[in-house]
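Lecture 7 notes: from sequence to structure.

We start with a single chain of 300 residues. Read the sequence below before looking at the structure.
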Amino acid sequence: MTLDQLRIFLAVAERQHVTRAAEALNLTQSAVSAAISALEARHGVRLFDRVGRRIALTQTGTTFMAEARAVLDRAETAEMVLEDLAREPRGRLRVHASQTVASYWLPPRLVALRGMHPGIALRLTVGNTAQVADAVQDGGADLGLVEGAVAHGGLHRQVVARDRLVLVMATDHPWAGHKAVPVATLETQHWILREPGSGTRSELESWLAGQGMSVAALPLALELPSNEAVLNAVASSRCLAALSQRAVARPAAAGWIRTLPLPGAERPFSLLTNPQRYRTRAVQALIGILTEDGFAAGDP
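Now the structure, written as tokens:
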């Protein structure tokens, strides 16, 4: 079994299509098919079911996919360690970040990294807090940035910034002219919430628990997977939402939504690293920027 065979297998498995995998790898279709056939023949397994022109992973293929990805991650890490022997930080840097961090806090810091170290090949993946923590734990990310609570006890967590939630509503909502609302009245309105697993959702749940309430008590209208989707839904309805002050600053300034404070609904932005994995110069360079006093002083 070779690394090239594993790369080809993963490309086909992820696309469920031989031709598209061949195009992505810049190989011929026959070369891709031959690599898969050789892998199956050598180990006496069937990785794909072939039905006409379509293919689908077998149960064996699905199980093997996770192992193949883990092997390639380790191979990439080994290559990265060799590249890291250079004096100047360079090579691959995989960053996973939750949506609010990735959209509103992280971009200027990535621009600064690029300006200081153009040899670093950065790859940013956006997911919710749970997905980011999983990626750092499993080695799919070199570091992660989240705004919610993390269940992975083996990860190192460092607070790099702070954020707060605000109550969001349309400009014609009956509460739009208020300066504050009693917490007990939140249960009288319909809500549009971020999905379970997101940092925004977990922070709202934590804040409500501190008020002696539960998110289950809020009449739920919708659950949506992004801040932008929640904002647009709230702006065209009489529902409420709780979002990061960073996420709503521009829409609120433009006057197409209204916000009210949620006293005490503050949360940290946290940097996640896996202490069991090698920390390259590229990782160290980004950590230095993320924790730099100059950025913290100008943090919006």
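The first strand starts at residue 48 and ends at 51. Keep this in mind for problem set 3.
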